[in-house]
Amino acid sequence: MLDNATEIIVLQHPRERFHPFGSARMLVASLRRARLEVAFGGSERDLSHPLSLPPGSGLLYPHPEAVVLGELAAADRPRHLVLLDGTWSHANRLYKDNAWLADLPHFAITPQQKSRYLVRAEPAAHCVSTLEAAAEALMVLEPELAGIDALLALFERMNRDQVARAAAFGFDAAAPRFGDGA
User: Which of 2, 8, 58, 89 could join 147 via S-S bond, C-beta 3.0 to 4.6 A?
Assistant: First the structure.
C-alpha cells in the first residue's frame, strides 16, 4: 500500500461500480489515503452526490480553466484531490449533476505517456484512466512517494493479461468494448 499524503477522493458514476476492469477500485485499494464514493442521488437519473470536503481540496478535471498541477508552487498544491470515475461521457454527466464541483479549484495533468488502459478505449491520446490520472497527479504532488511505478506496472500487466485472454477467445482487443460508451 502506498503511503500517500494527498488524499484521493474518487466520485464514481454508478454504472462503473460493476465494471470488471475499472481502475478506481485498484487505485483506492493501493493508496493509504483514498476513498471511493458512488454518486447516487436517490434515483437512477440523479447523480447528485454532495461531499463534505476539507480545505485544500481540488478537482482533477480537464476543464478549460484548470491549472496544470506541475505549474503550481508547492504552497498552492491541493492536499485533497477529487477525481471523477466512469467513461468520459459519465464523467461529464457527474460534473454537470454536481454543481458543487464547479466551486472547487480545477487542476489538470499532462500525461507523460499514452494510456496503458487497453481493455477500454480512451477517446483521445491525452485521455487516461482514473488510476493513471491519480498516479500522474501524485508523481507531481509527491515526487518522493515510492511505489507509483509499481502500481502503474501492475495496471499495465492486468491490461495486457486481459487483452491476451480476449484474443485467446477470438475477441478483437482493438474493437470498442463494453463500458466504453461506444
Answer: 2
Residue 47 pLDDT > 90 = yes
pTM over 0.90: no
CB atoms within 10 A of CB 53: 15
Question: Locate cell 461531499: which residue?
Answer: 51
Q: Which candidate, 62, 57, 56, places its Cα nearest to that of 109?
A: 62
- Amino acid of residue 131: L
Place of cell 500500500: 1
Q: How far apart are CA 32 and CA 132, in angstroms?
A: 17
Would you call 174 exposed, middle or buried from its count of C-beta atoms within 10 A (0-12, 13-18, 19+)?
exposed
Grid cell for residue 164: 491476451
Q: Which residues pair with 82 in a beta bridge?
A: 9, 59
